[in-house]
Automatic annotation (TrEMBL):
GO terms, molecular function: pentosyltransferase activity
GO cellular component, one term: plasma membrane
Protein's UniProt name: Glycosyltransferase RgtA/B/C/D-like domain-containing protein
Location (main, coarse): membrane
Keyword tags: Cell membrane, Glycosyltransferase, Membrane, Transferase, Transmembrane, Transmembrane helix
Pfam families: PMT_2
Ranges for domain Glycosyltransferase RgtA/B/C/D-like: 49-213
Segments passing through the bilayer: 74-95, 107-124, 171-187, 194-213, 249-268, 275-295, 301-319, 324-342
Membrane topology listed for this record: Multi-pass membrane protein
Protein's cellular compartments: Cell membrane
GO biological process, alphabetically ordered: lipopolysaccharide biosynthetic process
Length: 462
């Protein structure tokens, strides 16, 4: 490994990290991020939608950098640096003399994707998931390399621990564990070894807070997420498959996606090496699960984030140069960042995904605060959890209530309020009342009906 390559990689990571931090501090929080910020104020072992790790990261970030968009997202851009180091070390452990070169390529490829480039400038469950998945792959590479019995026990325990922390971030981490288990159990040599079983108790210990919370709440989160597997609309399979593939081409960026695909061919050819063999399992089994799910229901583009570290290592095995793919991916990220911050080029609100998520909330909250004073309301309630979260972030002088069932799992004591400002989507059966809109560039993004009513136990009284 030449010093020039190390310098170029270090400079590139420093630039991308600085850009992600700038983006993290400049963009307003999205409704989902504001929702996770509410979680961070009520830390517990789990929530209806996801495990607790994203809330913990936001809590730590706001402690370090203040209760601001930068603070909420702070650990995202920062985590890419140790994550990149773990990815490099994993390649060096797995691929011997050529490992350093492969590691540098893998780090470049992962950082060139929008999944990591843009995803780690925001704070969602995928942000810690990608980091802990990378940590798990590194621990796996150590477990495959070490010879001493105690070292093997410790390394496989680290694999289980990293996998458990990934599970604490998002439930899709179990797909990586299932892939590793299948790969090891189907390999005659590894099937007879005892050390990999050390990963199981370490995983259970790391995942214990999430399991305990679900047990205490009638398995609500497991049932909600597991219930997705029951959706089945085969008539729309072509649409869902197209969205899944198109989403990955977009989030990986086109040239990096092509290198991922080409790398898989070379990884398969090297399947006699246990490292390449297990990487194929980690990359392909979750993908097969998502493809199967797409036959009957929509797969969100971010769901495959869990396999991106493995895909980066596999892509680095390809024989083609990655320079242009990395350059194009980084250029796309810079263009997206410029648009997100400066709205260049300007797009119509209905065609601007960034504006639909982040624009107009400050004025919207100000209008809501004015109505609170006019109506002398003692609380504000919204059916949409994102609207409730953004109003809570705005710091209204009265309590904010979410009427969505999600809010009931935040551990907040239910209080009766007699004069509540109700903000809900407009629909044909909406009661008469005032309308306030969230607007951008003079165009309404979304409008809401405002009424006043009493609320008890999170339910609007007639």
């Amino acid at each position: 490994m030449r010093g020039k390559e190390v310098f170029s990689l270090s400079a590139g990571l420093a630039f991308l990290t600085a850009l992600r931090l700038y983006l993290a501090g400049t963009m307003p929080l999205t409704p989902d991020e504001a929702y996770y910020r509410e979680w961070s104020h009520h830390l517990q072992g789990g929530y209806l939608d996801h495990p607790f790790m994203v809330a913990l990261w936001i809590r730590i970030g706001t402690w370090l950098a203040g209760d601001s968009p930068l603070g909420a997202r702070f650990l995202g851009p920062i985590s890419v640096l140790p994550g990149s180091f773990f990815l490099f070390c994993a390649a060096r452990n797995l691929f011997g003399q050529d490992g350093a070169r492969i590691g540098i390529r893998a780090v470049w490829l992962l950082n060139a994707t929008l999944m990591v480039g843009l995803g780690c400038a925001t704070m969602t469950p995928d942000t810690p998931l990608v980091f802990f998945t990378t940590l798990t792959v590194w621990a796996l590479s150590v477990a495959l390399k070490v010879k001493h019995t105690l070292s093997k026990v410790l390394a496989w325990s680290a694999v289980g621990g990293g996998l458990g922390l990934g599970f604490d971030s998002k439930y899709t981490a179990v797909l990586v564990g299932a892939a590793m288990a299948c790969g090891l159990l189907l390999n005659a040599d590894w099937r007879r070894r005892l050390s990999p079983w050390c990963a199981v108790p370490a995983f259970l210990l790391s995942a214990a807070p999430v399991i305990w919370w679900n047990k205490a709440h009638h398995w609500a989160s497991f049932i909600k997420q597991g219930g997705r597997t029951g959706d089945w609309h085969p008539a729309r399979a072509a649409q869902f498959l197209g969205e899944l593939i198109g989403g990955q081409i977009g989030l990986a960026t086109p040239l990096v996606f092509a290198i991922f695909a080409m790398g898989l061919v070379h990884a398969y050819r090297r399947r006699a090496e246990v490292g390449a063999y297990l990487l194929c399992w980690i990359a392909l089994l979750p993908l097969c699960v998502f493809l199967q799910h797409a036959l009957g229901d929509r797969v969100q583009a971010n769901w495959p984030a869990v396999v991106y570290p493995a895909w980066a290592l596999i892509g680095a095995l390809s024989l083609v140069r990655v320079r242009w793919a990395v350059a194009s991916g980084c250029a796309i990220f810079v263009l997206v960042a410029v648009h997100a911050v400066y709205q260049v080029p300007a797009l119509a609100p209905n065609k601007d995904p960034v504006a639909r998520q982040t624009a107009g909330w400050e004025r919207f909250a100000s209008d809501a605060a004015s109505l609170v004073q006019q109506k002398k309301a003692d609380a504000v309630a919204a059916e949409d959890y994102g609207v409730a979260s953004k109003l809570a972030e705005a710091g209204l002088k009265v309590p904010v209530i979410g009427l969505d069932p999600r809010w009931q799992f935040l551990g907040l004591a239910a209080q009766p309020f007699q004069n509540v400002l109700i903000i809900n989507d407009i629909h044909p059966n909406s009661p008469k009342g005032e309308v306030i809109c969230r607007s951008y560039a003079g165009h309404a993004i979304r409008c809401y009906r405002v009424t006043v009513s009493a609320v008890k136990d999170g339910v609007v009284l007639p």
